[in-house]
Design a protein that fits this description.
The chain is α+β, with helices and mostly antiparallel strands and 151 residues long. Helices cover 30% and strands 33% of the residues. It contains 4 helices and 7 strands; from the N terminus they run βααβββαβαββ. It starts with a strand and ends with a strand.
Length: 151
């Protein structure tokens, strides 16, 4: 397997398909009113850097760093296709996001994930994130779990 992670534009057909699959997966686990999806167009904004994971050229995962005021970065749009889960690819994306945030002198990383995503919790906790209360403008909801990490 030739797994590569690179910064890419999300405005590619195969990445659009990956994000569509991510959104469908989230909607299977969380009511639509509690899903906070960035669109591919929003992901392509100047405040967001998108990492795409490819296996022999095929897009199999993604994750992004979205910058907010106050030197805060958000880990968002994390997804690995089911065929590639369990290989610590998510951990590698988080490492890349964190490295970029540190290079840009961000002071804190935060994220929101669902209450039915224990595999994601493991990735974040192994990377040194701690659970916290609501972050950014996310509402306090039983459907959300929040994490933070000081850099």
């Amino acid at each position: 397997m030739a797994i590569e992670i690179a910064i890419e534009t999300p405005l590619q057909d195969d990445v659009r398909d990956l994000v569509r699959q991510l959104n469908e997966t989230l909607l299977e686990l969380t009511p639509p009113e509690h899903c906070y999806h960035l669109t591919v167009e929003q992901m392509a904004g100047h405040d967001t850097t998108v990492f795409i994971v490819r296996d022999n050229g095929t897009a199999i995962g993604c994750g992004a760093l979205k910058r907010h005021g106050g030197s805060i970065g958000e880990v968002t749009r994390m997804y690995i296709r089911p065929s590639h889960r369990g290989q610590r690819i998510g951990a590698r994306i988080v490492e890349r996001v964190e490295a970029l945030a540190r290079d840009e002198d961000l002071k804190r990383l935060v994220l929101e994930t669902g209450d039915r995503h224990p595999a994601a919790w493991t990735v974040y906790e192994r990377a040194g994130f701690s659970r916290c209360g609501p972050v950014l403008d996310y509402p306090d909801s039983e459907w959300s779990v929040f994490y933070e990490k000081s850099l």
